[in-house]
Design a protein that fits this description.
Blueprint (H helix, E strand, L loop, with lengths): L1 E6 L33 H5 L10 H7 L30 E6 L12 E8 L4 E8 L5 E9 L10 H5 L4 H4 L4 E5 L22 H15 L10 E10 L1 H12 L4 E7 L8 H12 L6 H4 L5 H5 L13 E7 L5 H7 L3 H25 L6 E7 L6 H4 L3 H10 L5 E2 L46
Parallel strand pairs: 1-10, 5-6, 5-7, 7-8, 8-9, 9-10
Antiparallel strand pairs: 2-3, 3-4, 4-6, 5-11
């Protein structure tokens, strides 16, 4: 196993991307791990010292969903996220539209919203598609959000598309939305709040066929070279690594940022339970009772053999609160304590997976442990460029094709030189777009 270890020092992050995390609006979830804060975090942290919580495991296990919010959207669904529509019996593309209508930035015209149906879930799904620059057949990489699985996705609102360097990478990025607290998994039973969830089936069996077909007569398929990768943050990181491990014939590379990769030990179980409960879901509807076959099958730490020969990027911060965290959140004890516990748990789980991968041959593993940082977007954002670059190093390189423009919604030209785009631009006040957007930073955490 080849291992590259990157460890940030002096408060800087090794391989940080070119988009300044300070330009983003970090997600802030109300509420405290302990109900009423009793610690003066700002005084105790001393710009980088660990918050004196004696046991992450005990803290996580003792927390209830109501007093342990995930970073990101703090609002639980008021009603069902989705319900089955008996009239949906096929997986099809219903509509493709620009993601950033009205943009003056030509690059934004490569970003689209595909409204598709899923036969397995009998519902419509909003999928964001970011085409590679025109003229190449490129690898496809899924991006999986965290617990909120917001619409628009974290990729559009700062994680990736906001970085000019990432927009120039020769890769098609596909970001599905509308899967809050689902673990991006196939559930045993439809949940009264979280609805039907068959996300593994959708990502592996249904969506690839739609991307390869497009919408005949109006929208070209993705210019794809056949190579697949996946990356995710928090809940999405856990799912991305599991998807690759369980589907080695499809995925060749994966990046996991601040994830938890065991489901059967106490820490991993509590993380999965709290992730589902954070949006008022019932975890037994997901994989059945604790210890069932599905719980065991999703434990990548216990059996990472599917990652043999794969390219793997893993990162996590220590959970220590540093000057960057205090700059973003001040002395907000609610956010700092919750983020500390979650990220320290991710750090410990990532170390467990690194150790387990030591027994798996031919893994091109790159690790990045950040000396400070809590479980929130200011940490996640720094890992997108190095994570994507390592993923792309394990995928087939883009190859030239005969097309000079890419086909977009309703037959329009997507990336013609000198053309004007059709969506949110530099300085846009929309919810997403290019660097300089006035939109939010997104909200995905675990």
């Amino acid at each position: 196993m080849a291992v590259t270890l990157l460890v940030g020092a002096g408060g800087t992050t090794a391989g940080a991307q070119s988009l300044d995390p300070a330009s983003l609006t970090p997600s802030v979830a109300p509420g405290s791990l302990f109900g009423v804060p009793s610690l003066s975090v700002a005084a105790l942290t001393q710009l980088g010292a660990p918050i004196p919580l004696t046991s992450v495991l005990g803290s996580v296990a003792a927390a209830g969903s109501g007093d342990f919010p995930r970073p990101g959207s703090s609002q639980s669904p008021a009603g069902p996220v989705a319900t089955r529509d008996g009239s949906i019996t096929e997986t099809t593309v219903r509509e493709v539209a620009p993601l950033f209508p009205g943009s003056l930035n030509p690059q934004d015209r490569r970003a689209e919203v595909w409204t598709v149906t899923s036969a397995s879930m009998q519902r419509t799904v909003r999928v964001e598609v970011y085409r590679a620059p025109a003229g190449v057949d490129a690898p496809n990489v899924y991006f999986l959000d965290g617990v909120g699985s917001e619409s628009p996705s974290g990729w559009s609102t700062g994680m990736g598309w906001g970085d000019p360097a990432l927009r120039e990478r020769e890769v098609n990025v596909i970001a599905p939305t509308g899967a809050p607290a689902s673990m991006w998994s196939d559930w045993q039973t439809d949940d009264p709040v979280l609805g039907p969830n068959k996300w593994e089936t959708f990502l592996v069996d249904e969506l690839p066929l739609l991307l390869a077909k497009g919408r005949p007569g109006t929208v070209d398929p993705l210019a794809h070279n056949g190579s697949w990768g996946v990356m995710g943050v928090s809940m999405g990181a856990s799912a991305a690594v599991h998807l690759t491990n369980a589907n080695p014939n499809m995925f060749d590379a994966v990046a996991g940022v601040s994830g938890a990769y065991s489901t059967t030990d106490e820490l991993g179980y509590q993380y999965a339970r709290l992730t589902v409960a954070a949006r008022n879901g019932d975890v037994t509807n997901m994989w059945g009772p604790r210890g069932s076959l599905q719980w065991r099958e999703h434990d990548t730490v216990a059996d990472p053999s599917g990652l043999r020969g794969k390219t793997v990027y893993l990162s996590a911060a220590t959970g220590r609160v540093g000057s960057a965290e205090l700059g973003h959140f001040g002395s907000n004890e609610m956010v700092l304590i919750d983020g500390h516990v979650l990220e320290k748990g991710s750090y410990e789980s990532t170390r467990q997976l690194e150790s387990a991968l030591g027994a798996i041959p031919e893994v091109d593993l790159r690790m990045n442990y950040l000396p400070t940082g809590i479980h929130n977007w200011p940490v996640f954002i720094t890992q997108m460029l190095p994570g994507m670059d390592h993923v792309l190093s394990g995928l087939a390189a883009a190859t030239p094709n005969a097309r000079t423009i890419a086909g977009g919604p309703d037959g329009r030209s997507v990336d013609a030189p000198g053309s004007l785009g059709s969506a949110g631009s530099l300085g846009s006040t929309g919810s997403a777009g290019s660097t300089g957007s006035g939109g939010s930073a997104g909200s995905a955490g675990r």
